[in-house]
Amino acid sequence: MLLRVSSSFFLLLLLASVAVKAEDIPLGTCDRLPVVEVTVPGIKTQLRFLVDTAATSMLNSKSFSHGASGTISVTSWRGTEEARSREVTLPELIIGQHHLRDLRLPAVDLSPIGNACGKRIDGILGVDLLSKLGATVNLKEHTAQLQPDDKSSEAAVAELHRRLAGCEEAFNRADETTFAQCLDPEIVTFTVAGDFYGREATLDYYRKAYFQQNPPAQLSTVSRAHHLIGDAVWVEYDLKIVVRQKVIVARGTALCRKSNGIWQIVHLNHSSPPAPELAAQENNGR
Q: CATH no. for residue 137?
């Protein structure tokens, strides 16, 4: 058949069984108070938010000057008081790899907190946003553990599948230039013709085996499953390649990683599907 099973396949199988890990965010301190660095697009500097599981989230009006004016009830050990505030809309707030979007937060003067601990506090990351992040705060280890962002993960997988569909189209056009960009420079590919290490070696194999055929070989794939592994995705799929009158079917795995904003394949491996499925796919190809 087309490709052989290698020990790397079993390594990928092991990796795929690992659940997506939670993200550990280091916490700093302002005096003895826990703080976390936050990014807001459009603001060049990193912001410092106080982590407070007993408060609701809010912004420092000194750091965010826009928004509609109003009042807010602030509860402390002295009781509940009315304070001047503004309602600020943040299109996005980023903590580590997690993105919180379309937030509406009150902004009040938090200067007293900053003055007390000796550093500027740009906001408070309170129980409401900590809950959205699935955060567990560990004051002893000075970390906050954030659970995986399901929506971001789903978006990443959808983006990857669109990318792979474009790579399939490039293969069918024998478009080497476009297809080459689908491969990581250090890609590893295992085939019955040999093991190929690196983009140039892999591309040379595809060129000789498929791209130089007349008419060009035609590839079709059907996704079976995907597994998130940290910042990478392991994809399982069935494939069929028609080369003139010959039909090649295989079960494939691809390990993909996003680099510089582009998804690329870092490992390819294929094996023959189980015998009943193999016969059915070959009959469908006739």
A: 2.40.70.10
Any bridge partners for residue 241, and if so which? 219, 248
Total structural domains within the chain: 2
Model pLDDT, residue 151: 66
Q: Count other Cβ atoms within 10 Å, centred on residue 231.
A: 11
pLDDT at 271: 74
Q: What is the residue type of 137? A: V
List, in sequence order, every residue forming a beta bridge with 259; answer none if it has no partner. Answer: 262
Backbone angles phi, psi at 4, to 5 degrees: -115, 160
Is this structure's pTM higher than 0.85?
A: no
- Identify the CATH number of the domain in which residue 199 sits: 3.10.450.50
Whether 1 is covered by a domain: the verdict is: no
* 179 and 194 both lie in a single domain: yes
Q: What is the pLDDT of residue 275?
A: 54
The neighbouring-strand residues paired with 232 are 229, 257
- Same domain? 13 vs 30: no
Phi, psi of 181 (to 5 degrees): -75, -10
- Give the span between the Cα atoms of 67 and 64, in whole angstroms: 8
Domain of 174 in residue numbering reads as: 7-18+151-284
Intervals of the chain under pLDDT 50: 1-20, 76-78, 276, 278-279, 281, 285-286
C-beta of residue 238 within 8 angstroms of C-beta of residue 219:
no
Q: Residue 272 corresponds to which tokens in the numbers above?
A: 């023959």
Place of tokens 């916490």: 27
Nearest to 86 by CA among 102, 115, 111, 64: 64
Burial 7-25 (b: 16+ CB within 10 A, else e): ebbeebeeebeeeeeebeb
- What burial class does residue 285 get, using C-beta atoms within 10 Å of its C-beta: 0-12 exposed, 13-18 middle, 19+ buried? middle
Q: Which of 106, 223, 210, 216 shows the shortest CA–CA distance to 158? A: 223
Tell me if the bond preceding 216 is cis, omega within 30° of 0: no
